[in-house]
Design brief:
The chain is an alpha/beta fold and about 140 residues long. The chain contains 3 helices and 8 strands. It is about 15% helix and about 30% strand. The longest helix has 11 residues.
């Protein structure tokens, strides 16, 4: 740190995470209708935003956000991304049944020892979506 400059406080939380999908209607169906996230904003051809607890999940069309628009820096990603949503281990079978009933194939189920299990699926854009218990990231193994 350069002399004379104060150190900022560490960041505290993830405020938003972003995924990219060309078919925003399919993304809205998957995240809103199937996963139950609250849709809070949609701009046709550009984005659909969802609230997930205190965080936001932003789904952008990668072609639209790669173009400078004068308000935000261009951004985008190509290829599948990943997001993990908190879901209690005891609810994973109900999630499996719901997703399979709606034609969403299960990619995998991974057991993380005492921390619990994760269920992996793909959204319509090919992004990896994980449902995992919050215990997966508890730092103190004794707290598990």
């Amino acid at each position: 740190m350069a002399p004379g400059f104060a150190s900022p406080a560490p960041v505290r939380a993830v405020l938003e995470t972003c995924l990219y999908a060309r078919d925003l209607d399919a993304a809205a169906h998957f995240y809103g209708d199937l996963l139950g996230l609250e849709e809070v904003s949609r701009e046709e051809g550009r984005h659909v935003f969802f609230r997930c607890g205190a965080q936001m999940v932003l789904v952008f069309d990668p072609e639209a956000t790669a173009k400078p628009d004068g308000t935000l820096p261009p951004h985008g990603a190509h290829g599948p991304g990943h997001v993990a949503f908190a879901a209690e281990d005891a609810q994973l079978e109900a999630w499996r049944e719901r997703l399979e009933a709606h034609g969403v194939p299960i990619d995998d189920t991974v057991t993380w020892g005492e921390a619990g299990r994760s269920l992996y699926v793909r959204d319509p854009a090919g992004n990896s979506v994980e449902l995992a218990p919050p215990s997966l990231w508890i730092e103190d193994a004794e707290a598990r």
